[in-house]
Specification:
With 235 residues, the chain is an alpha+beta fold. The protein contains seven helices and eight strands. It binds a DNA duplex (12 and 12 nucleotides) through strand 3, strand 4 and helix 6.
Length: 235
DNA sequence: ATGAAGATCGCG
DNA sequence: GCGATCTTCATC
């Protein structure tokens, strides 16, 4: 159905702008995870946060270290770190070489359900050949291409949070420092014309707030999310 | 060497 | 609200 649609790829130049500019621009773009076995997991970016030099919450605030060194490089690479010994978080490195900054991807609305989730919880799987009735769609434009047997609410929250989205997309530190491009495990695609139209018509609106989970830089309003989107981590 | 804190999450 | 769980980094 959409096989003829072209998905334009987000390139490093586009990402080489200040993170507070890139963060809202990434809303409505798609993150693609290419698995080694060929499976693709796709998710619409619905929540982001910016981190930058001079920002006390930024991992690169104090000095260059082995962990944060990729943030000091040019825009367009991934920065993945482990938090609380349990979860991983995915960032898109932004701005020009020498300006340490990144955008944290905080939530996705999945466009498809990873097969490994269906395998682990059979209630997510769709019986072959079945033509289930679609639950009523969420308040925003996006429609899932499958008919989930679980409550749609649960499906929509599978990637509602930076740790959860890395779990769902099988992202860990092995994927840190890689360029976002189609020959890699991760890349980004620009907004589809449908999503862009919804934004232009204000059917999709953005909310800007302070960032989540910080003890420093709490007052800096560098979090953005799509209003009324059920896949956002917190409203 | 050592320890404190951390861009989280799910449960109660 | 709390604990899980372990890396990172600053300081000793």
């Amino acid at each position: 159905m959409n096989s003829i649609l072209t998905h334009s790829i987000v390139d490093a130049t586009w990402l080489s702008r200040p993170s507070p500019t890139v963060a809202p621009d990434l809303l409505g773009c798609t993150l693609v995870r290419q698995m080694p076995d060929g499976e693709q997991i796709r998710g619409l970016i619905v929540e982001t946060e910016a981190y930058a030099a001079g920002d006390p919450a930024c991992h690169a605030y104090r000095r260059r270290t082995p962990r944060n060194t990729v943030m000091f490089g040019p825009g367009g690479n991934s920065y993945v770190y482990l938090i609380y010994g349990i979860y991983h978080c995915l960032n898109v490195v932004t701005d020009v070489d020498g300006e340490p900054s990144a955008v944290l991807i905080r939530a996705l609305q999945l466009e498809n359900i990873p097969s490994w989730i269906a395998a682990e919880s059979p209630s997510h799987s769709i019986p072959k050949g079945s033509n289930q009735k679609q639950p009523s769609p969420p308040q925003i434009v996006l429609n899932l291409p499958i008919a989930p047997s679980k409550p749609l609410k649960q499906i929509l929250r599978l990637a509602a949070g930076p740790g959860k989205l890395c779990q769902v997309m099988k992202i860990d530190r092995n994927l840190s420092g890689l360029p976002f491009q189609p020959d890699q495990p991760l890349w980004l695609e620009h907004r589809s014309s449908e999503v862009q139209a919804a934004i232009d018509q204000q059917a999709l609106e953005f909310v800007q707030t302070t960032r989540i989970g910080l003890t420093q830089g709490v007052e800096i309003p560098w979090r953005w999310y799509i209003a009324n989107c059920p896949a956002v981590s917190r409203f």
